[in-house]
Structure formats: structure tokens, C-alpha cells
């Protein structure tokens, strides 16, 4: 009888479940479900109803298990990856009080500023938690509920993050782990526990509403509830691991569990991160000093607009992915001087919550769809490279960058990234980093639970493989050109920063 593990990645746009062979790490089957944001919200608000995640979770698990054609008894563990920072509010009966405010919600910018002032400013906040308090973090969303929806806040009994809520649905247990908790703005990443001064800055009674922390992320949350197991066709008591945020699970799924590996994730948002055996604190607060979901740390930069930019171009010109690549490939590196600041949803690094998209350098010979498309890819790459530069300033020395996520499938984009990063870029043999990472973590947790002594790195070294056919080496002429464009990109972002809040707000 085999041993199989389910990994689920619950994201902003959809959910994917995979069934992984516990002996080889190969993916036996997978299933997906799509969904969107709640419509007609105020400007900056981005929300989803957690019941949508639950429905997608159960649908994809059932479909993936059916496609794998294995027995329920062969499923030994389930791991959940979830979008970070979202605020799921439960009452004392475990019922969701209101839709979850998501990582990309920028409607709580005033509350983020209020909290930062209460804590004594950025330097004080960095001392307390290792992180700043960007608007995307969970803390400002909780304060927003307190100030804007006092009746709902009065019902609040438990604060969970999206992946924690799915764990709660599966097991009935409300827990958090250090990796995902790092992105709340309430968590001390040095001590790997809640920071009382930050918690009290939101509300004096908030501490009683925060779940206990698994500091190493190695312990299972619990076993699958009988009712949920019956609905899924699985065995009651099947182990559910701690899971983690999508970046933490993406790190595991890309083998980023040892020093020297760097991952760039190209999804709706973009991240660049690396494993560290110690906390890495950025005095500017731009690099997130996250814990990982394996007992180490994961210094990380996040940009809010990656495939957002290319999807907007595709929609505007009614293109598919092949057409996007074909038209962009006709345009030379640098897009003949056309540059995009892709801040369509505001931006986190650099910290521009009121940011807007800017096409700069338009002229008669580059005012074409192809130029706008390539400039979108390049603008995203330059934004990520700004963050990579901050990681390098703090000691990171990448020799190779592993790319994952939807954007990583585009060969032109991979080459642009290699040229902009001036570092070789390679994809993974299995592109579903976060879902695979969740399945690997479930295997690790299962082995430890049985008393086996194993390090997570041993599993990732055996299971995570790169795809040599995707390797892109930087082209020196392009790298020199992009180095110049990076300077323009950085200066333009800084110049536009005070202008963005002055633009008329819509909605």
C-alpha cells in the first residue's frame, strides 16, 4: 500500500489541490477551481467570502483524489497553503462574521498609519517585531473593523488567517504557525510569538482572540473531522499539518530550505525570498522579516502587481498568452524607451499604497500594443529587482534564482528576469510550488508524528527538481541596458510618490 499526501494552495484567484506520491515526490493528480473578488466594493477594498475557499477546497480535494485512483487509507496527510495577511473573523460559535479583507486590500491605509504612530514609528515597530506595518498586513484590517464596524467587532472571538481558517474547517481547531503569523503585524519574528505591545495597540482585549502559535510549524494541527472526512471520501483522523502562507509553502515547494537558494514567485503579486538561519531585519522596513514554515526565517520582498499587469494588457488588446509573448518578442529589450510603473493596485515595495500605473516615455515609434506588453513584463521585473537589491544590501548573494507561479511559465519573461536580475533563472520540474510545498510539509509532519527523525531539507533535496530546459542565462548587453532603466524606474517611482495621493479617488 502506498503513502500519498494532499497539498492545497488556496489563492486569490483560485484553489489547486495535488496528490503527491510520498515515496517519490511525483504529482499523481491535480484539480483546480476558480473564483473572484466580491464585486462593487469601495475603492481599495478587496474581499472574499471564506465559504468560497471552503467550497473550492472540498471540490479540488475530491477531484484530485478521484483522479489519483487510490484508496482513502493511502492518504496520510493534508497540507494547506493560503494567501497571506487576510483577516478572517469568527464569533464564539466559529461562524464567519463578515467577508475576509485580503492582502491586496488598501482601504485600511489610515488604520495602518494610526497603528504605526501608536507604536512610535517605523524604528520602534522594527524593534518590536522585525517588520514595519504596511497596509497589507492583518493588524490594520482588525483595527478597521473595530473603528468602522463596531457591531461586528463586538462579536469577534477568534482571529484567523485564510489558511488557518481552512485548517479550522478541516479539524475544528484554531491554531496559527510562525510563518503565516509573521505577516500579521502583531508577531515578533525574533521570539516567534505574539508581541504584546502591538496587540494592545489594536485593542486591549485582542490577545484573548489570537490563537496559540506552533513556533516550528512541524506539529500537525489535528486530524480530519468525521463529517468533513465523510464528505471528502477520506478517513476521519487523517493528519492535517500546520500549513502556512503561500510564500512559506512556495519556499518548501521550490527547495528553498537551505542557504543559497532564492525563489521568485510570479503570481497576481510577486515575491522574492531566501532561506536564512537567523532573522534578517531591514532598517528601512522594505524587506519582510518573516519566519518560514520549517523553523527558520524567510526574508522576503513583495510587489502587489505582477500578472495583474500582463492580464490588463491582454484584456485591453483581447490577447491570449501566446499572442502576448509573440507581440512582446518583436520588441527589443528596453521597449524603445517605454517604461511601466505597474502600480495598478497600489504597491508594497516600494511602499506606495496610493500608487497608480504609469506608462512613461511614450513616443510615436513605441506607442504600440507590443511595446506596452513588453514594457509591462519589464516593469514588473524592474519592480522585483528593486526588492532584490534590498535583499542584496542585507547580505543575499544569489547564484541562481528559481522561478515559480503563472508568470514563470512564459519563456520571454524568464529571460527578461535573468537579464534584469543579472543572475541565471530556472524553472521547476513541477511548477506548482505552493501546493507541492504544502504536500511536502504534510509528509514531514506525518514522519515526525510517527517518531521518525528527519529534516525537511532532506525531503526537499530528494523531491524538488529544477527543469534544465527552462534555464536562462543573463545577456550582458541587455543587463547593462536594464541597469540604466532600473535607475530611471527608481527615480520615477520616488518622484511620483507624492503625486499619487493627490489624484482624484474613484468610487
List keywords for this structure.
single chain; 507 residues; alpha/beta; Nucleotidyltransferase, domain 5; 7-stranded mixed β-sheet; 17 helices; 38% helix
3D structure, described in words:
The protein has 17 helices and 24 strands. 38% of the residues lie in helices and 20% in strands. The mean pLDDT is 95. The chain has a domain of 277 residues: ATPase, nucleotide binding domain (Nucleotidyltransferase, domain 5), CATH 3.30.420. Helix 11 packs antiparallel against helix 13 and helix 12 packs across helix 13. It has 507 residues and is α/β, with parallel strands linked by helices. Strands 1, 2, 3, 5, 13, 14 and 15 form a 7-stranded mixed beta sheet that branches. A 7-stranded mixed beta sheet has the order 18-19-17-16-22-23-24, with helices on both faces. It has a two-stranded antiparallel ribbon with strand order 4-7.
CATH-scheme architecture of the domain at 4-249 and 433-463: 2-Layer Sandwich
Question: What is the count of helical runs?
Answer: 17
Compute the average pLDDT: 95
Radius of gyration: 22 Å
| CATH homologous superfamily grouping of the domain at 4-249 and 433-463 | ATPase, nucleotide binding domain
Task: Specify the biggest β-sheet.
Answer: 7 strands, mixed
What is the CATH first-level class name of the domain at 4-249 and 433-463?
Answer: Alpha Beta
End-to-end span in angstroms? 58 Å
